[in-house]
Structure formats: structure tokens, C-alpha cells
Prior knowledge:
Layout lengths: L1 H57 L2 H11 L10 E3 L8 H6 L10 H11 L5 H6 L12 E3 L8
Antiparallel strand pairs: 1-2
Amino acid sequence: xxxxxxxxxxxxxxxxxxxxxxxxxxxxxxxxxxxxxxxxxxxxxxxxxxxxxxxxxxxxxxxxxxxxxxxxxxxxxxxxxxxxxxxxxxxxxxxxxxxxxxxxxxxxxxxxxxxxxxxxxxxxxxxxxxxxxxxxxxxxxxxxxxxxxxxxx
Length: 153
């Protein structure tokens, strides 16, 4: 009887030691994985700090002001550049037809004029007479800024 119980206890001890070995091996693998992930996190945090420093340098107002003065030809808006919408001429279909087209495109000025004539409501003499003198119907007198880009240095 003692022999059978000893065999059972030895088998239980071997099974427990095998399970303990597998568990400790898995724990070691998980610890290695955890330390690898922690190293990656630290590396990413360092990269983020470098990027934040670079962003702060690139967005430094003094540096940007120097770059703007060096590369852009911006000047303050002059009073002559501010006009109302009434002072801006309308594009007529004839002017649109004369505009140069990119290569490979067909002029559609006749189609545009026809579509515009069909879709535009007929204006009567009374409607034109009720509009303020010097103003086209539907235009407001809001100020508009005329800007000249690429002025010579």
C-alpha cells in the first residue's frame, strides 16, 4: 500500500513541477515582452520630445518674422486698394470668351451665353429703373480689398 501511495505522490510532484516550470517560463517571456514594450515607450517619448522641441523652434515668432521678411513681399494694405463692389467691373460673356483656355480644352462661351440667357429671368425696364443709379441689381456696396500679389522688391 505504501508503494502505490508513494507512486501517486511522486506523480503529483512531477506534474506540479512541470506546471511550475511552464508557468515560470511563460512569466519570463511576458517579462521580456514587457521590458521590450517599456523600451519602445521610452524611445517614442524621447522622439515626441524631440518633435515638440522642433515644433517650438519652427513656430518661433521671431524666426517666422525673419522668414516672412526674407521671402514674402507683403506690404500693408493701402487706402487705394479698398473699393466697393460697384467699382469692380462685371465680366461680360464677350470677355469670358476671349480669355485663354488651357491646352486641349474647347471654348464653351456660346454654350455658357445660351445657358445664361435661358436661366436668367427677364429684366423689365421697371426693375432696372428701381435700382439705384450706378448700381447693378443684386450688388451691394460692401467694401472690397484689391490685392496685388508678387509686387517687385
